[in-house]
Amino acid sequence: MRNANTAQSGSVFGCGGSAILCNPHFIMNIQDILNDLNSDKIKNIILDTDAYNEVDDQYAIAYAMLSPEKIKLLALCAAPFYNERSSSAGDGMLQSYNEIFKITKLVDENCAIPIYKGSDRVMTSKDVPVESEAADKIAEIVMNSGERVYIVAIGAITNVASAIVKYPEIVKKAAVIWLGGHAQHFPNAGDFNLAGDVIAAQAVFDSGIPLLQIPCGGVCSEFLTSIPEIEYYMSGKNALCDYLIELTRNYTKNPYAWSKVIWDVTAIGLFIRPKAFELVAMPRPFITSDMKYAFDMARPHYIYVRRLRRDSMYADLFRKLTSLNF
């Protein structure tokens, strides 16, 4: 993070150094985003989620829906994933699509937020989008909005990258928040979200769209909870809470003294508790094919989350999840 301007969340970053190193278009957007994050203005969000991959997306979806004072959730998009919980990337996307419906109905049985199917595979060329309903709808929503739209990606980022490649004009009207990659001091950047979708991540980082990265290992990995904690605050409160507790319990076979990172909540918490985040403005890195960061000080700036603090986010999350009375 050499030669980066640093500040606590809530500050507006300037552009240090010569004009050669500072692209005014991107610095202006960064300043706008930082101001916007710390304002009381309701943010327009599209949430792109691999909801069946783990247990954290479910918390994040519910948290976004239960935070109308900060978030207007414009759409939910199902992202592909492939691991032991799916037979293919496309199967992971379809299971995520179904899981999104389950969570939204637990929060609000009359939920009318549009839900779109995403890519059935990950991107294999930075110049070739993967066709999907989600990619088209992301671009449509952005271009039809009179305000900035935040595309919040908490999984593989092919849907978002495809929207950018197919409709490059959206870079002027949207910003991307991505929970992906590890912290820059790690020897390898390849968390689950990046490792399964390297080319799409490269496409987004190289696209010029205003970008904020929440690294997983080394930053978001501090966002820990435990089964006793979630049981203490959430048990028996409502069907949503009971479902989330069951998901979390079932995620481990060795629950004794076990803790769990609820990764994706942080991407929503950024809008609700922005002062819980320490941010730096710096040139965005290249992502190499072997999942490392490469640096060029002439690259456009982006926002990098250096540290987060868990307590205020978990307090707000637990209060909102338990506020439902059915």
Oligomeric form of this entry?
Answer: single chain
* Widest β-sheet, arrangement of strands: 1-10-13-7-6-5-2-3-4
The rounded Rg comes to 19 Å
The helix-strand sequence is EHEHEHEHEHEHHEEHHEHEEEEH
CATH architecture identity: Alpha-Beta Complex
Strand content: 15-25%
Helix fraction bin: 25-40%
Query: How many separate domains?
Result: 1
N-to-C CA distance: 48 Å
Total count of strands: 13
CATH class annotation? Alpha Beta
Helix-and-strand structural type: alpha/beta
For the largest beta-sheet, the strand count, sense and barrel status come to: 9 strands, mixed
* Shape estimate: globular
State the CATH topology: Inosine-uridine Nucleoside N-ribohydrolase, Chain A
Uncertain regions spanning at least 5 consecutive residues: 1-28
Walkthrough of the structure:
The chain is an alpha/beta fold and 326 residues long. The chain has a single domain (5-10, 18-223, 262-320), classed as Inosine-uridine Nucleoside N-ribohydrolase, Chain A (Alpha-Beta Complex). The protein is built from eleven helices and 13 strands. The chain has helices at 24-37, 56-65, 89-107, 133-144, 158-166, 192-195, 198-207, 227-234, 239-250, 265-272, 311-321; strands spanning 5-8, 43-49, 71-78, 115-116, 149-153, 174-179, 211-214, 224-226, 259-261, 277-283, 286-287, 293-294, 301-308. The strands form three sheets. Strands 1-10-13-7-6-5-2-3-4 form a nine-stranded mixed beta sheet, sandwiched between helices. Strand 5 (149-153), helix 5 and strand 6 (174-179) form a beta-alpha-beta unit. The chain starts with a strand and ends in a 5-residue tail after the last helix.
